[in-house]
């Protein structure tokens, strides 16, 4: 039995349905992420887990117990907010000790648990500092330590890194992964940042318009999206309109609109004549002036460089095919001192393996 179960939960605000019949399960010790754009229902769902909102219908089961009538302070969960919500007039140690004092924990035990929490987040030498004397990342760790000191069964994190700059956010992501492994507490994490979700999570629930579009491990969500929304929302992705023309045992032939024939892996819901889109990640596409054409597992098309975007470690090339369709490709800038391989309007050839793309039936 899962540690946390959400069973057919619905939450409305007036005429707006924020969470629409959501069901999912979170295992003990899991780093589970709710991912989606603003307004998709992820924060509302998190607030219902915390007890700040009550579902209109459905059940939230934690450790086999229905949380319906359990107030927030009685639930074995704690929440870390985006703005940290730590007390500016208290030292780090006092902030972490606060929930223990409210619970009436005896002083010797309180002191030991505060020291343990400080060690968990590697802030032992910061115990006597005040929040204004610390960086954003350090204050975030104080908030996490305070949430962990009561030993919750589940730690809820609501966009906890969104206020940090890019470099610090990356450092904190690594720290969160390490911390979650070390303390073994189940994390339920809310974010709109796709890269963050892919980097941190054991599993991801991608939400859209109050519903879960796909729930899977990061690799499957990235490589095998189940809808156009997931393919388009998770990272960069080409979506090429296509029609199924033939289905075999290990591959199927599709016609990419206005471009030509290609092959792809068979998928559930595909049938001859079925329309849809081929989702194709830019890094899966080879690009060159000419490419070897002796591999029967590859499809080749010709085009011209329409535009490019230099990003430091990689360059994005927008290729215009003969019919005017634009395809995004990506090349690593691995050659010393060379940041650009092609110029605008250069004639090029692109290719990809039949199993590089994923067909999404309409």
Give an overview in words.
With 362 residues, the chain is an alpha+beta fold. The protein folds into 2 domains: 4-229, Rossmann fold (3-Layer(aba) Sandwich); 236-361, RNA polymerase II/Efflux pump adaptor protein, barrel-sandwich hybrid domain (OB fold (Dihydrolipoamide Acetyltransferase, E2P), Beta Barrel), CATH 2.40.50. It is built from 8 helices and 20 strands. A 6-stranded mixed sheet has the order 6-7-8-3-9-10, with helices on both faces.
Protein traits:
362 residues, alpha+beta, Rossmann fold, OB fold (Dihydrolipoamide Acetyltransferase, E2P), 20 strands
Layout of secondary structure:
Layout: E1 4-13, E2 16-26, E3 31-35, H1 42-50, E4 57-62, E5 65-66, E6 77-80, H2 92-102, H3 107-120, H4 136-148, E7 154-158, H5 166-183, E8 186-191, H6 194-200, E9 203-208, E10 211-216, H7 218-223, H8 228-233, E11 238-247, E12 252-256, E13 260-264, E14 275-280, E15 286-288, E16 298-310, E17 314-321, E18 326-332, E19 347-353, E20 358-361
Parallel strand pairs: 3-8, 3-9, 6-7, 7-8
Antiparallel strand pairs: 1-2, 1-4, 4-5, 9-10, 11-12, 11-14, 12-13, 14-20, 15-19, 16-17, 16-19, 17-18
